[in-house]
Amino acid sequence: MIYVVIQFVCIIYLIMNAQFDHLDPLSYALIALSVVIGITAVINMKLDNLNIVPTLKDRHQLVTYGIYRFIRHPMYTSVLLLCLALTLTNSHYLAQLVMVILFIDLILKSNLEEKLLNERFDSYQNYKNKTGRFLPFL
User: Fold this and answer.
1) CB 136 within 8 A of CB 70
2) pLDDT of residue 100
């Protein structure tokens, strides 16, 4: 899927061009928060439900507990926070453009996932109305 390719190209670019010697306290905090959110999301999601491609597995379950009680796409939040930290180390305009592309890509990818989830789960729309996409309460 094109969304996954774009996502990984952006992440790899930001990692390869990060200036790790320019990490500041904000960047460290974003990375730490990213790791906590990412690990929590994977634990709550369970590995057999995890899928990087925006499709649903046959036995896919709607997870609405743990961190998913507040955020519908916490793994994307984790990726965005990590990449934001990396972008902050690199003042080049291309890194900032790649970050914007990644953000748009994850919005489009999450839109597709939400369409699929809404078609499969009757309760999804209600869940969507009560949670933020990438941030709680937004």
Assistant:
1) yes
2) 98
Please give the angle made by the CA atoms of 51, 52 and 53, to the nearest 5 degrees. 90
Half-sphere exposure of 133 (CA within 13 A, CB side): 11
Residues 46-80: pLDDT tens digits? 777 777 777 777 788 889 999 999 999 999 999 99
What's this model's pTM, rounded to 2 decimal places? 0.92
Residue ranges covered by each domain of the chain: 10-55+69-130
- What is the predicted pLDDT for the residue at 56? 77
* Helix orientation angle between 93-120 and 2-17, rounded to the nearest 10 degrees: 150
Cβ atoms of 119 and 55 within 8 Å: the answer is no
Contact 95, 12 (CB under 8 A): no
Dihedral sign, Cα of residue 26, residue 88, residue 4, residue 106: positive
Is the separation of the CB atoms in 114 and 56 below 8 Å? no
Which residues are 71's β-sheet partners?
A: 132
As a whole number, mean pLDDT of residues 105-119 equals 95
